[in-house]
Structure formats: structure tokens, C-alpha cells
Amino acid sequence: MDTAYVHGYTEPETRRLGDQADTLAELLHAGTAYPAGSRVLEAGCGVGAQTVHLVARSPGAHLTAVDVSEASLHQARTRVEGVDFRQADLFALDGEYDHVFVCFVLEHLPEPEKALAHLKTLLRPGGTITVIEGDHGSAFFHPRSEAAQAAIGCLVRLQADAGGDALIGRRLHPLLTGAGFGDVAVAPRTVYADASRPDLVAGFTRDTFTAMVEGVGETAVARGLITQERWDHGVADLHRTTREDGTFHYTFFKATGSKL
């Protein structure tokens, strides 16, 4: 499975993933709980940032968490116990599961349709899939800034050049139906942060989204997508949204489907 993980595997990225998962746990995981004894596959668990919350909400489920990166799995094993962590390519997975959970994975795959079709073969009849993805086109904020939008656009471009899609959230319904899932339902999960929500301002606007954009700055400038001056301006304006009079909005999309 070729992946386009444009954010890299650095220690700051590991911290960012943890901050994101913890800050957004209720928003993203609300409504997701698996029965005791059920067999659950988390495909693309990374460093285990989401695995922690899956285990907390479904303590009696049998969770298998798989990732292609052994380094990421090493960190995942230190985060949470009681999980069967395995290193494997998504397309090499076999077995049968009652439920599949996929979070922030499809955006990094050049062929998400094929990935979903393969995951469907791992579900028992009547089994379910849950997919969560973001969409960087949903980011808007106050004060407005063309430079900040340009910086975000660099991240979208870099991910596209690597074979991924940072705008994939809006595609989840056609992707799941195209892969043959039934009962597909997609719902937006919106983050809105302003001065009345300081935890979201720090945990999401600053430590998740802006940190994610900042992480690709050196590459964006080196590839000539943006000048250093405009990049610095854009990042500064993203940080500006965390001040007392700033606001920030972003939408994730959560999709569910079943194997008929």
C-alpha cells in the first residue's frame, strides 16, 4: 500500500496526532462503541492516538490495530494495552471482523476506492465500517487572510502531489457506495473555536491544524509553491486566529456503512 503521509514521522508530528485525538475525542468518537466480544479492526492505527479512545469506549471488544509502519506501532504499544497490534500492508490484511474503523487514512492513499473495497472483504455479512476524514477546504477563520489560505493550499497541493487527497471528506459517500457498502450515512462533525472555547483554541486551532500546516513549510518553500515571506505571513495569520478576537472553523466527516 503506497501512502502519501506528507506530515512525516517526527516527534512533533506524534505529539500533534495525540493532541488532535484527545482534543477531538468526543466530537469524532461520539456514537461509536462496539459490543463486548465483537471483533474490531482499526486499519491504519499509526501511533495509536485514536486507538486509545476506541479501547476506552469499547473495553469489551477484541481490537486488532494494524499499520504499515513498525516505528509507529512501537509508539502505539506504549500508549495502550490489550490491543493486538500488527504490522501489515492494508491490502495484505485477511481474517473476518464484525466492525472496521478507519480514521485519517484514506486521505493518504492514492486509491482509496480499492482500499475500501478490500476492507469490505474482511467484514462478515452485516458487519459495519466507520470512516472519519477531514477536508481542508472547510477551513475558514477570522480575521480573513489570503496568505493563510495560501499556506493551507500548499499543504493540499503537497498531499495531492504525493498521491493523497486533503479534501477527501466531501467524497466519503460516493467512495463508500462505490465500494459496495450499503446503508451509507455521512454526517459533518464541525469544530468551531473562539475565545469562549480556550481548550479548542489551544488543542485544535493551534496544536492540531496550525501545527500541521507549519510542518510542511520547509518543503513548500523548497518546491517553489510559495515564498518564505508569504509563508511566514500565512502562518502568523493562522496564529492570529487564536487571539481574543479570532475564530476558526473546520469540518470533519464521519461515514458509516454496512456489508449487506
Which properties best describe this structure?
alpha/beta; globular; 260 residues
Through-space gap between termini:
26 Å
Number of helices: 10
> What class, by secondary structure content?
alpha/beta
Helix content: 40-55%
Question: What's the short story on this structure?
Answer:
This protein has 260 residues and is an alpha/beta fold. Helices cover 40% and strands 23% of the residues. The chain has ten helices and eight strands.
How would you describe this protein?
- There is one protein chain.
- The protein has helices at 11-23, 25-29, 51-57, 70-79, 112-121, 146-161, 172-178, 198-214, 217-222, 228-240; strands at 39-43, 62-67, 84-87, 97-103, 123-134, 140-142, 182-193, 247-258.
- It is α/β, with parallel strands linked by helices.
- Strands 1, 2, 3, 4, 5, 6, 7 and 8 form an 8-stranded mixed sheet that branches.
- Strand 4, helix 5 and strand 5 form a beta-alpha-beta unit.
- Helix 1 (11-23) packs antiparallel against helix 8.
- It starts with 10 loop residues before the first helix and ends with a strand.
Ordered list of secondary-structure elements with their pairings:
Elements: H1 11-23, H2 25-29, E1 39-43, H3 51-57, E2 62-67, H4 70-79, E3 84-87, E4 97-103, H5 112-121, E5 123-134, E6 140-142, H6 146-161, H7 172-178, E7 182-193, H8 198-214, H9 217-222, H10 228-240, E8 247-258
Parallel strand pairs: 1-2, 1-4, 2-3, 4-5
Antiparallel strand pairs: 5-8, 6-8, 7-8
Helix pairs in contact: 1-8, 6-10
